[in-house]
Amino acid sequence: MLSPGDGMGWGQIGDAWRAGTPVIAYRQHYELRPGDNCLLAPTVSAYIEALSSLRQQPALRETLAANGRRDVLQHRVSAVAQVLAGHLRSAVSRGTTSGGRP
Prior knowledge:
Layout: E1 2-3, H1 10-18, E2 24-25, E3 39-40, H2 44-56, H3 58-73, H4 77-94
Parallel strand pairs: 1-2, 2-3
Helix pairs in contact: 1-3
């Protein structure tokens, strides 16, 4: 999947990761980490090289896809809800709100 790198397309990136598709990005944005969950390709020649790398290196393709799936799962509603619930429990146990008032 090619991410345009213009700050749009998070849904496309997440969908690609959920489907196990490696992402090639024009530039680093969102939670893209080159070599971990994507490849960067700022030029046409770099894009062709990235495609070639994915085609010739199944282990790289599998690693990028697996790491992308790992990262997108952190944004599931249930995962985000657990993090939020933890913050709320912590605030309640301290007896304060974000404004610092009891």
